[in-house]
Amino acid sequence: SAGNDSERRRHALLDCRGQTVVDLYAGIGYFTVPLLVAGAATVHACEWSPIAVAALYRNVVENGIALDRVRVHAGDNALAVGAIGRVAHRVSLGLTPTSRPGWRLACDVLREDGGVLHVHENHKVVLAPRGEGDDDDLHERRTPAERYAAAFRKWGDDVARSIGAILDERRPLDDDDDGRVGPSSSRWETECVFVSKVKSYAPHVFHLVADVRCRPRAGPAQQEKTGS
């Protein structure tokens, strides 16, 4: 669809120069190839279908991309993350109707200093009739497009909070001088820095994407190291 093509083009324009990216749902390279075009040094492409893996290799070659920039992990992505390690500047979660099963995996492969998750999901939005909003005066003034945009933004902010909770659980930060991961006294900051409708999926259901920036919140030890 046109929405999918727009999202692919957006990926090709991301500043990925020199970055390591993990694509947890690579398929035939729908986002893997644009990310490589955008300058990613390496993309770890996870895909369970042998047919899709073969097509992924063909698409990489046909786009003039060196094969050594792509590391394909065939099979279950839950098993691949251990071999990949905490290397990702970005993680692509391009699965619908929801990528939520991959959110924990994405958190596991983020670098120690964080990165960006590109989160996809189908989300239902039904606008309340006029006069039934939380703020009737504001509700009356906003156009339907503005109300949809607000609903999409709320979804993106909710996704960022959920990702933050997962990071706090799985990647607690330690204030020890050696920087080891340990009992948490410093938490992660997560922020939805971009949200957009990719396409309409069904009546009142929209395929959305959110870019969620994740970074450790500096505690006393980290502040001393960074001088912040």
Characterize the structure shown.
This protein is an alpha/beta fold and 228 residues long. It has 8 helices and 7 strands, in the order H-E-H-E-H-E-H-E-H-E-H-H-E-E-H. It has helices at 2-12, 32-37, 50-62, 77-84, 103-109, 136-141, 144-170, 220-226, and strands at residues 20-23, 42-47, 70-74, 90-93, 115-124, 188-202, 205-216. Helix 4 (77-84) runs parallel beside helix 5 and helix 5 crosses helix 7. The longest helix is centred in the last third of the chain and has 27 residues, at 144-170. The radius of gyration is 19 Å and the shape is globular. Residues 175-186 and 220-228 have low confidence and may be disordered.
Question: Keywords for this structure?
Answer:
228 residues; alpha/beta; seven-stranded mixed beta sheet; 8 helices; globular; disordered C terminus
Structural class: alpha/beta
Overall mean confidence score, pLDDT: 88
Oligomeric assembly: single chain
Overall helicity: 25-40%
Q: Strand-and-helix sequence, N→C?
A: HEHEHEHEHEHHEEH
Q: How many strands appear in the DSSP assignment?
A: 7
Question: Which strands sit side by side, in order, in the main sheet?
Answer: 3-2-1-4-5-7-6
Radius of gyration: 19 Å
Low-confidence spans: 175-186, 220-228
Bulk shape:
globular
Strand-residue fraction?
Answer: 15-25%
Query: What is the helix tally?
Result: 8
